Amino acid sequence: MSANTFGKIFRLTTFGESHGKAVGGVIDGCPAGLLIDLDFVQQQLNRRRPGQSGITTPRSEADEVEFLSGIFEGAATGAPIAFMIRNTDARSQDYEHFKDVYRPSHADFTWDKKYGLNDWRGGGRSSARETAARVAGGSVAQLLLSQSGIIVQAYVSQVGKVKLEGNYTSHNLDDRYNNPVRCPDAETTRNIMEHLEEIRLAGDTTGGVIDCVIRNLPAGLGEPVFDKLQAGLAKAMLSIGAAKGFEYGEGFAAASMLGSEHNDLFKGSDEKLLTPATNHAGGILGGISTGADVFFRVAFKPVATIMKDQITADKSGNPIILEGKGRHDVCVVPRAVPVVEAMAALVIADHLLRNRTSKL
Amino acid sequence: MSANTFGKIFRLTTFGESHGKAVGGVIDGCPAGLLIDLDFVQQQLNRRRPGQSGITTPRSEADEVEFLSGIFEGAATGAPIAFMIRNTDARSQDYEHFKDVYRPSHADFTWDKKYGLNDWRGGGRSSARETAARVAGGSVAQLLLSQSGIIVQAYVSQVGKVKLEGNYTSHNLDDRYNNPVRCPDAETTRNIMEHLEEIRLAGDTTGGVIDCVIRNLPAGLGEPVFDKLQAGLAKAMLSIGAAKGFEYGEGFAAASMLGSEHNDLFKGSDEKLLTPATNHAGGILGGISTGADVFFRVAFKPVATIMKDQITADKSGNPIILEGKGRHDVCVVPRAVPVVEAMAALVIADHLLRNRTSKL
Amino acid sequence: MSANTFGKIFRLTTFGESHGKAVGGVIDGCPAGLLIDLDFVQQQLNRRRPGQSGITTPRSEADEVEFLSGIFEGAATGAPIAFMIRNTDARSQDYEHFKDVYRPSHADFTWDKKYGLNDWRGGGRSSARETAARVAGGSVAQLLLSQSGIIVQAYVSQVGKVKLEGNYTSHNLDDRYNNPVRCPDAETTRNIMEHLEEIRLAGDTTGGVIDCVIRNLPAGLGEPVFDKLQAGLAKAMLSIGAAKGFEYGEGFAAASMLGSEHNDLFKGSDEKLLTPATNHAGGILGGISTGADVFFRVAFKPVATIMKDQITADKSGNPIILEGKGRHDVCVVPRAVPVVEAMAALVIADHLLRNRTSKL
Amino acid sequence: MSANTFGKIFRLTTFGESHGKAVGGVIDGCPAGLLIDLDFVQQQLNRRRPGQSGITTPRSEADEVEFLSGIFEGAATGAPIAFMIRNTDARSQDYEHFKDVYRPSHADFTWDKKYGLNDWRGGGRSSARETAARVAGGSVAQLLLSQSGIIVQAYVSQVGKVKLEGNYTSHNLDDRYNNPVRCPDAETTRNIMEHLEEIRLAGDTTGGVIDCVIRNLPAGLGEPVFDKLQAGLAKAMLSIGAAKGFEYGEGFAAASMLGSEHNDLFKGSDEKLLTPATNHAGGILGGISTGADVFFRVAFKPVATIMKDQITADKSGNPIILEGKGRHDVCVVPRAVPVVEAMAALVIADHLLRNRTSKL
């Protein structure tokens, strides 16, 4: 029972492989009347697009999105919104030497075990190229959130051993897309660029962390007991190929805190203004948004394709030396920033609509 | 659109509040023919049960489970398996003083915002008592996994500031339930017990971390692209009330690793034996199990109810001093161990069945 | 992948067998704040209850419903509403002689083929007793519909060869539950009673038809393209064990009509009043309610258990004579009336909530 | 909560409007390894295609399908299979005069009520053009059924007042696509052609009935209690725009039968051969297939667009005369035959996969 659909009410179904004809998707459940700003969708796709700078893969895809249905006179009609992005720069011949070997730490091995066959060209469906459809779909979700003033902002807070100091309240996130690292701090950005260049020269790769904040979220989103808001966000983030961890609020640090440190006490002069004075909780209590900022962090592993030789075994179990070649990112984290935003927006858009049925 | 059902094929629907008549659930999709070992179900419930030791709440619930349907001559029939656990020691009068105040860092506030009303007796549906139904349902899932030799073992690896050294390979997990902390190491257990006693005397609470390993999992479980195995586990874990973070494999540490360090190379003399030589991946590639152990960690926040006075605001926004009283755990993490096992088992059981439809 | 849950937003999960401990269910997604009129629920159950009159089975079940969760101070809280009805008059010994034979036209054969085993006591899960849980759940849905003034009224329009003349507009449906046949016309009721007595004396059974009308439905309910309102109703009705056919509006008669006969033209002096002048459509166009009455008909087959000997084969394929004995209805259709109402209400309640997310 | 996805495991999501860029769909859950016979898919589309004969609309669409993903070296990979059919002969100007009037018995009115806006060009999403995507998706389901020898055959059994005598056992269904009526009997076909020509000359339209049989179905398909096989078929058929009724087995005729007439007794010399001697049931008992042929009938209403003037009201409620013009079928039933087959195949394919999880 496969799973290429995300969400319950605002639903995105995606399709497409790295070296197939196209990647794309169908959005079902977008409320009729939403104005679809095609430029915004394309802008988010451009931010994920390969070939943008020295730190991303040189594969060059225009990633131009074509909408096929569900929009009439600029607005969503209530019918499904289908879109596609043609693949143009796939070079399957680069992958011929992978026909007989499972690339280490890639999905070739498990895909083959599961399905009994594997489209080995560029990772097929397991390629990060699949995330283009998430970004296109998620950017429509972001347009829906904008109607309620909700803002989703992700940024890079760590690449390899270089970490950004402070949390989201310490930085101006509006500038995060102005540099190829997608980091809001200029000095940290420079350090990361240097770090990445060293790693690239060594033929290696590295991982990183993306932080994300969701502002202006109304109280009441999230569905006990199994679709708590944080559960939806965790699933969304861990569904991104390279993600290895998720934490929200104080996260793993909460494990060693005392209750008296972690509790958020209330303040306020009347019921309307009643809000927690602090936000250790990360904007969610009992799985439901409090009205405070929701913030979370996502850890990413290093890119598995490296430019170094690796001693591994081929599909028959014979030891071989796998040469490092191909076109890949040194670190995927900067390009994953719009993906994190897209997935977060999909979760919130879905819960925004789900919450319409909570009360009489 | 509420969410009290977990899973797609092996599905658990739960119900019940802390101070209602009962908590319980309905399992739909359990394959016919599975022998239901009622003693095992009760044993897992006993491990979660309050009132077991000095470090848990003195609320005393027998937590005796009654099965109502779906079992004939000891085996699952294919019909839904319903069960219930009557509440017997609820003391609603203990909560009378919370009618006019939202307890800090509890779900009273958000539940009220979402639903326009709130069953304030003992946290209602947002009480950890809800997890009894997860354990009962999850233990049936564990019985299904046992048929395939799959073993799920969780244990406490951190309480407050005391951490267990080493990962799951360093300890004998069979003994984890022999002490109230659910920690496989005797010395760490003693340190945790001391640490908890200090915190209890101070009227405070703390959090912790649970590690979990799933052994003997066949390769091929997990559904790209949105229901990757780790995405399902992350959602399951973050759906537990107090959970704040999830990581698998190298987790957050992977962010600062190099690709050449993190990659798991293959070894093996023939195709059957082909397996990764290391397991930085945590047993999952491309969202699909590799056949190696799956391991992950879950962080928990401190218990919100403390025995200290707290300066907060009542529902009208007036500042008040909230007295510390009631019956609560100093640390919920030991009792959450069977809950983590139950949720993990539910995820795996579901994917085991889902995977039956992957191929012709 | 079994299916004991009905609905997408307003969801009913049912459980229980004829001769198990109880039948019951869990309603998830009932909007918080709905007042739960327990007397109404019990009244609907009483209308379905066996042992009410000479034309129903003498099995005597009080069918007293116990609510276990989800209600606080008389209102739905947003948490799942669980309920159960204990079985009290099951006589499994009556079924001992069915251990070795599949009862003709019952589900014993297919259940065994599907699951590899069969709870042969009283039909197990395939017994009509299962519908008690539908009625309890559906009556909560009816309470939700009442909030919007929506009324669901089913009645018997045919039993065996006796048919009621005219459609729902020709009769006063308020009296339909005043006689054991659940037919709104006194003379037809008498004829049906006589017809049933003849059939009973002959040791035989028969089928019938139930008509249903839904009034005061707002325009806009139904979800193109697959969850059209009529598609949901058709599924709901055909999920009732003995149902063999469904038609709405002109139904099968529409097949031989001309477009110029069947079309409903608009009348009205302003946009608000714009409604179809006739209602051949049955209140639905393009799968969406028009605001006119929705009406449909459901055909039921004869009860399979007859009091005559039948020449059939046992489970080993040996010819045997199956004696007619046990406690059964001569015609199940009168008792199915509240079941049809319940299922219709579940469909409408679900679409009422689903429709809240159609527009910005 | 919109619904453009059909099925639980074998799932088809469709998109597209009559006058948009394309119609198409995404199949998720097709088992890996299935050979995709593109010629068969195109053949089924051709059978639904407009402009084929004098009795269908002259709108001329090549309906050439393009597959975008999920197929590698001729076989399904387990990844979603996306496809699209470009619209080429849409003439939106034909619909300009419908901007201010709701066409009688069309979905313009209800779509507007539901979504607050309406793509009035050619019916938008509510156009029968949407069924092209069902046929493409359903034909992939048919390929899956072929693997198990299952055959789905629909045919026209009534058009307007002309009815075909006998049921599916009386005719050779292999020839049904050899004439434009899709009727297996030559004389009835001639009568229908004459009947349709008369109606066409009168500027009118009519309805009809399609019969369908599913052969070689294994016993065991169907999911109690809500997803009974007939419930799924009923939903599938009633989701087709013009369908007004569904019956299976004896259908509405069963209502007036006696139990002793309707019961199917068993015959057989050993357990393997045990089958019902008759098939009044229509191949399903307790919602589960018996192994006998499943057969059902679907009633269709007359086409709403007629070539006669109609006195109706415009959107402001002012009376107007609506002229009859445009390109439409006199009777949609012949073109609906591959649609019925497609929807039936989708139901069966889904249940075939669902049934893989019923037993240990």
Brief synopsis:
Chain A has one domain (5-355): Chorismate synthase AroC (Chorismate synthase, AroC fold, 4-Layer Sandwich). The first copy, chain A, is 24% helix and 21% strand. The first copy, chain A, is built from seven helices and 18 strands.
Structure description:
- 4 copies of one chain form a homotetramer.
- With 360 residues, chain A is an alpha+beta fold.
- Chain A has one domain (5-355): Chorismate synthase, AroC fold.
- Chain A is built from 7 helices and 18 strands.
- The longest helix of chain A is centred in the last third of the chain and has 22 residues, at 333-354.
- The mean pLDDT of chain A is 92.
- Chains in contact: A-B, A-C, A-D, B-C, B-D, C-D.
Report the sheet with the most strands of chain A, covering strand number, pairing sense and barrel closure.
Answer: 5 strands, antiparallel
Which architecture name of chain A does CATH use?
4-Layer Sandwich
Q: What's the mean pLDDT score of chain A?
A: 92
Rounded to the nearest angstrom, the distance between the terminal CA atoms of chain A is: 35 Å
Sketch the topology of chain A as an H/E string, one letter per element.
Answer: EEEHEEEEHHEEHEHEHEEEEEEEH
| SS-derived structural category of chain A | alpha+beta
The CATH class of chain A, by name, is: Alpha Beta
Strand order of the largest sheet of chain A: 1-2-3-7-4
How many independent structural domains of chain A? 1
CATH topology heading of chain A: Chorismate synthase, AroC fold
Shape, per Cα inertia axes of chain A: globular
Per DSSP, what share of the residues of chain A sits in E-state strands of 2 or more residues? 15-25%
Helicity of chain A, in percent? Answer: 10-25%
Gyration radius of chain A, rounded: 21 Å
Uncertain segments of chain A are: none
Number of helix segments of chain A? 7
Oligomeric state as shown: homotetramer
Q: Give me the CATH superfamily of chain A.
A: Chorismate synthase AroC
How many E strands of chain A?
18
